[in-house]
Amino acid sequence: MVTTRRQSGAVLRPTAKAAASPSSPSKAKGTDKSKSSASTTHYEFMGPPGALGIILGLPLVCYGLVFLCNEDTCLSLDALPTTFPDPPKNMPLFSIEACFVFSAWMGYCVLLHLLLPGTMKKGTMLPDGTRLTYKLNGMSVLLVTILLTGVGIHTETLDLQWVHANFLALLTAGVGFAFLFSFVLYFGSFTTTKKGKQKILAKGGDTGNYLYDFFIGRELNPRIGNMFDLKVFCELTPGLIGWLLLDLGFAHAQFKKTGSISVAMSLVCAFQALYVFDALYFEPAILTTMDVTTDGFGFMLAFGDLVWVPFTYSLQARYILEQGVELELMHIIIIIAIKVIGYSIFRGSNGQKNAFRTDPDSPSVAHLKFLKTKRGTRLIINGWWGICRHVNYLGDWLMAWAWCLPCGFGNVIPYFYVVYFGVLLFHRDLRDGEQCEIKYGEDWKKYCATVKYRLIPGVY
Residue 203 and residue 207: Cα distance in Å, rounded? Predict the structure, then answer.
């Protein structure tokens, strides 16, 4: 779920950077160009009941994280609530102003995406034998936004701390927008193209069950015109940049409140900003991820991109603002060390994989050993990818710890992300393994016998 990161299709991943396997691009053989989709009745996430549970449960989790921990109160393990807690007193649950701000933010991101220049990249082969062209300019949108935000704060024409006082109302606006957008995507998948052809549907989203298809995503690549790809745009632009702006809003509020920005707040904002910058700098990598190549664009990705990522991943910055955290020097050193190790694993492994895919004969990756498959592709079996099958997930999870540890150990709530993300990566690994076994057959079994560990070397 929320790419991500980057960076990685399970439900609600940060971004969608993680690939199914460290292989070079495959050559499509025997593509049936008459087919625009391939129906299936194979369900994930426990089928329609699981889809319904996730559709209803995800918004409740988003609200629950605010209700359980805010300026008025914060859950402790020795005082568990017996009823769903009340919202914080100074945060409205809904406002027309917040709806306008959220809609204006989406419109602003669309406008900049259309107006700013970008890199044109071809995607992978589609079921009908064609390849779409994508306009990628998320980094340009980010840099312009940071510049305008800095000017606005410096000239006092922008009060970014507003996002904290109106956080719940913004969340409500985002939830409403995501549901409405998901319905538009679902019903739009039943229309035809301008040439009267059926739209290309995602194999997993064409089950015929309305609820499940709405959740998982029915159309593979919904677009407006020839270049504006809705899925790729939402994966990396409004949600990721919005997450960073929420962090900066909490930091701004702390500065206005105390006259300074704490070390804990600085670490969280810096670490998460690096994650966002990394995702957008390596934006073309998203085109080979499961999110783009396999998953349809429905509620799962729409809610994950536009609501889950910004409003739950900013939890640590909000917690530090509301609760106040002081860190010892040794604590700071350990946190930075974990971040450096995690990012080194994450970026090193992803960089090695992408270099091998682009040019396996390059001096930087020519030394790597690989297993050649019957499909003509190669699976790396040493280097970063000889450590475990998803070593990039391991680096990603270590970085998650570096985001949470600045919150100290006074409460369990800010550690929601690292627990959730660990479960997410475990599920994503199982999902990727299933897809790779279908894709590579016996070659995948040989690969698994060579690279024995999935996520944590020597453990799992």
Answer: 8
CB-CB contact of 301 with 205 (8 Å): no
Query: Which residues, at least 6 apart from 73, have a Cβ–Cβ distance to it below 8 Å?
Result: 85
Q: Which two tokens stand for residue 266?
A: 């600085």
Strand partners, 201: 219
Cα–Cα nearest to 136, from 228, 25, 221, 220: 228
CB atoms within 10 A of CB 456: 14
Interior angle at CA 324, CA 323 and CA 328, nearest 5: 135
Q: Say if residues 445 and 453 touch (Cβ distance below 8 Å).
A: no
CB 394, CB 426: distance < 8 Å:
no
CA distance 313 to 398: 15
pLDDT tens digits, residue range 400-449? 999 999 999 989 999 999 999 899 888 888 888 888 888 899 999 999 99
Number of separate helices (H) and strands (E) present in the chain: 17, 6
Please tell me whether residue 43 adopts helix, strand or coil conformation. Answer: coil
State the maximum Cα–Cα separation within the chain, in Å, rounded to a whole number.
65
Q: Count CB atoms within 10 A of the CB of residue 102.
A: 24
Cis peptide before 4 (omega within 30 of 0): yes
Single out the residue of 294, 400, 288 nearest to residue 350, CA to CA: 288
Burial of residue 22 (CB within 10 Å: 0-12, 13-18, 19+) is buried
